[in-house]
Specification:
By secondary structure, the protein is mainly alpha-helical. It has four helices and two strands, in the order H-H-H-E-E-H.
Length: about 240
């Protein structure tokens, strides 16, 4: 029994050492994941800032081009007005002639649109904003689900039972039973409780916006319909 007790002690010490190594390994992995997350989001921020600058420059360039064309057309119209004023004598002669068609000059219409604005561009920009928010919401939900799946001690580990028999000096044996169980909280679903550290999830039970496959890809509408559980009624 002494050897059995020593063997159990060695097993517990080995389990303690393995747990310490697992904690250290997970700490290193979490630090590396946090650094990688910082790098990814920094690159995304830089990319969005670059696109913001490009769109702003595109708007300025289009504004300058449209104004230049309008100014050129304005100069042409002013020249036409000057020519019409210089032909005032011909117009007076036109009132005295029987064939006024000969003195009519061709009039060039200005292709202007009084309602011209950047309204459609602003609508497209608003649609792009909504699309980005939708993609970010679904992507962040997928990230949080996978982060919560990372655990050291899973709930599937059964409790470890330790039975030790100690023999006293009088030869009578007393049975001592020690139950050691590793308490492990199973990863909670994002749709059950809200995380105060997650600003992208509403308070209370969250309604899933996207359905994700095991690889994090968005399922099609047909696949989502097949995943819906339909109620079955029993026949009496």
């Amino acid at each position: 029994m002494k050897q059995s007790s020593l063997l159990r002690i060695q097993q517990r010490e080995k389990a303690v050492q393995e747990l310490k190594e697992a904690i250290l390994s997970l700490t290193r992995s979490a630090r590396a994941a946090a650094e990688e997350s910082d790098c990814v989001f920094t690159e995304l921020i830089r990319s969005v800032e670059l696109k913001r600058f490009e769109v702003r420059e595109l708007i300025k360039a289009q504004e300058k081009s449209a104004i230049d064309e309008a100014e050129q057309l304005l100069d042409a119209i002013q020249k036409d007005i000057s020519e019409l004023k210089s032909n005032q004598a011909k117009l007076e002669q036109l009132c005295q002639t029987d064939e006024p068609v000969r003195f009519l000059q061709p009039h060039r219409r200005s292709p202007t649109d009084p309602g011209l604005s950047f309204g459609p561009m602003m609508t497209a920009l608003s649609d792009f904003k909504g699309l980005m928010q939708e993609v970010c919401q679904g992507g962040f939900v997928s990230i949080y689900e996978r982060v919560r799946d990372v655990t050291i001690v899973g709930s599937e580990n059964p409790p470890v039972q330790s039975n030790t028999t100690v023999t006293g000096p009088t030869g009578s044996a007393s049975q001592m039973e020690t139950s050691v169980s590793a308490a492990a909280a199973a990863p909670r679903d994002l749709n059950q409780t809200s995380n105060n550290l997650n600003p992208f999830l509403p308070s209370g039970p969250a309604k899933p916006i996207f359905a994700f496959s095991p690889f994090g890809t968005k399922l099609s509408s047909g696949t989502r319909q097949r995943h819906i559980r339909r109620p079955h009624f029993r026949r009496r």
